[in-house]
Amino acid sequence: MSLDFVVGIMAETIKVTLFLAAPVLLVGLVVGVLISLFQAVTQVQEMTLVFVPKIVACLVALVAALPWMLNLLVSFTHNLFSNIPNYIR
User: Fold this and answer.
1) pLDDT of residue 56
2) Which residues contact 49 (CB under 8 A, 6 or more apart)?
3) For 44, left (φ over 0), alpha (ψ -120 to 50), or beta?
4) Disulfide-capable partner of 65 in 9, 16, 23, 71 (CB 3.0 to 4.6 Å)?
């Protein structure tokens, strides 16, 4: 295995990881900004107001994106395992 080959596998792994985390993180970001905007407009400075809607939104995003995420993870793992003979040459 060459250095370029290992770097390529690592880059693909990081890309898959970012794709898997992106839907939940983006929904959490959007909901957090919207709630912060609501707090700024209404001057309600309750610290715990952010957590419940953000958790619910992240869970909904996770359930909605789970089939796509599983498909991406299974295809990545299948490609990784099916190319093991190429890795040990």
Assistant:
1) 95
2) 35, 39
3) beta
4) 23
Question: Is the model's pLDDT at 83 over the cut of 80?
Answer: yes
Which pLDDT tens digit goes with each residue over 16-75?
A: 999 999 999 999 999 999 999 998 898 888 878 888 999 999 999 999 999 999 999 999
Would you put residue 43 in left (φ > 0), alpha (ψ -120 to 50) or beta? Answer: left
pTM of the model: 0.81
Residues whose CB is less than 8 angstroms from the CB of residue 54 and which lie 6 or more positions away in sequence, other chains included: 28, 31, 32, 35
- Separation of CA 87 from chain center: 27
The DSSP-derived string for 37-79 is: HHHHHHT---GGGTHHHHHHHHHHHHHHHHHHHHHHHHHHHHH
What's the structural domain count of the chain? 1
**The one-letter amino acid at 12:** E
83 within 8 A of 57, measured Cβ to Cβ: no
